[in-house]
User: Fold this.
Amino acid sequence: MRILVCVKRVPAVGSRINVTDDGQQVDTAHLGFTTSPHEECAVEEAAQIVEQLDGDEHAVVVLTLGPEASTEQLRYAASVGGNEFALVMAEGGLDWDPQRTAVAITSAVRELEAAGGQFDLILFGNESADGGNFQVGIRVAHALGRPIVNGIKGIDPHERGFTARRETDAGYEVYELEAPCALGVKEGINLPRYPTMKGRLASRKAQIQVLDCTADVDAGGQSRVRLHRPPERASTTVQLGDSAAAAPAVVDLLDELGVL
Amino acid sequence: MSAVAVLIDHDRGVPSGGALEALTAARSLASDLNTDLVAVILGDGDLFDAHGADLVAACADYGAAVVHCGRHSFLADYGPDAWGTALAMFVEAAGPVAVVAAGTDRGAEAIAQLAARTDLPLVANCVNVSPASSLADAPSGPAGGDAWHITRIQWGGSLLEDVTLTSTLPLLTIAQHSIEAEPCEGGPVPAAVADFEPDLGPEVQQTLVRDRVTLAEGVTLSTAPVVVSGGRGVGSADGFAPLEELADLLGGRVGCSRAVTNNGWRSHADQVGQTGTRIAPEIYIACGISGAIQHWVGAMGSKNILAINIDPEANMVTKAGYAVIADLHEVVPAICDEIRRRRDRPS
Ligand SMILES: Cc1cc2nc3c(=O)[nH]c(=O)nc-3n(C[C@H](O)[C@H](O)[C@H](O)COP(=O)(O)OP(=O)(O)OC[C@H]3O[C@@H](n4cnc5c(N)ncnc54)[C@H](O)[C@@H]3O)c2cc1C
Assistant:
């Protein structure tokens, strides 16, 4: 089985997100980068699926689109179960609009499949932590002619494809997809492992294939004007107490709000 | 002019809260464009027999002039391909000026399927939409040409992005809880019903819901009037017992922070935040939660917030309307006791 996981490099933001003076980017001068959380879980899920299979012809292929620095996220994936790695080289690609991103990833997938065979499963994060456009995976899957279901929090492989669970307010829905197919994964599907010593070694040795397939990719119809922080909700905090003796005041408040 | 269309995402006939918010947002967009608001509902004959009248009445309450009911046996339950294909056929036949959906799992997914099928841009999680000034005769729109000017959320709401959208047919989702669902003033005008029958092939069946498992009955995290959440400060899985008790007493639900799910103390289904659930209760009681921005964006839709924390400088405390600066392990049981005491008191 071959599983492709598409991951995005995102800034590891703290308690406040700052924007560069020109309003075009998150100010990352003092920030590290990480893998967007849904996709980190997608890598873990792919690794778990492949590790359960007999034989060694199986592979977790990890792809990312971005600047050369995105190899950091591919190397991390190598330390937690990834086997093959592809960088779709795109300077500035982390801020691309979702249509453009999807077109570039689609042609990258075609190139990888032409060389290494069809992927049985392509995993995306449900949405990236930064842009949150909720569409790249769906556009790629559609262009490749594969079914996709988003919001997945459980995957069981079987002979012909995959059973996938999607969380709802009340429980979950079950989907049955035949391979080849794609799924958009959400955090909570698993608890991603931490890199082991062996994993760190593997990450240093990982070979990264660089794909140069973004030259003719046009910008889509959505174009950034500027990023800015939402207005802070002005709040004066009413302190109801500094010990358990505050309980009556709390219950008065609950009563006032009509929830008692 | 052609209408602004809203996809009503529903679960077996019950519209999502987001769908009503999307109708509210789209109604003001339609009024900017001086055109009608219409709704699109997808289902099969049985679904419309059981819920059609209620769904149409709900859409009329929110100002829809026409409700387009797409009927097909493959639309008996939800499926992204079936919904996306049916929606594409509606667009083709009815030629709306914009299509709007809720930023819910289903709304966002179905409209992204439409975007993929039509190769049109889709702007997700909008909080403010100004149509192209060439379309709107209202002077409020920003000056200049055929681009729509839109503000959308990034980072789950920690950041806003102003974008321009150039498209023959704008596709938009409305960020959940960014607008309050409000029926029309002056009561509903009955909506006209227009049936259509999308031509769906068997290939859409692959992504239909096959089965479902119900784990929780009654109020859910996203709809609970009271949410009592615990963070790292709770200290253990067992430490949640008093929070469960308080939530039970108030008819609410227990939530948690990512620190808690990462420690395996609670299921991820309980997580509030950017990568968890967005809540909008009457009151959010946050116990031992620092209020990191990714947690805050899930909680900020709450009407009132009470933070219980030992640290008066914690983000959650400074952003909350109410706070108790003390150990949650003492405060929460005391609140439970006080509630029981008042309820037991003969009135
Ligand atoms: C992309 C991304 C997405 C994320 N998504 C989410 C998300 O969806 N939801 C989420 O919650 N987080 C999310 N996070 C993580 C987030 O940044 C924080 O790490 C997390 O919310 C911290 O959880 P906490 O407040 O429980 O823990 P801490 O930050 O450790 O805070 C614990 C708090 O408990 C208080 N405390 C300790 N003991 C007591 C006591 N006895 N009584 C009272 N108070 C006490 C402390 O004063 C402190 O304020 C995300 C992070 C990233 C990078």
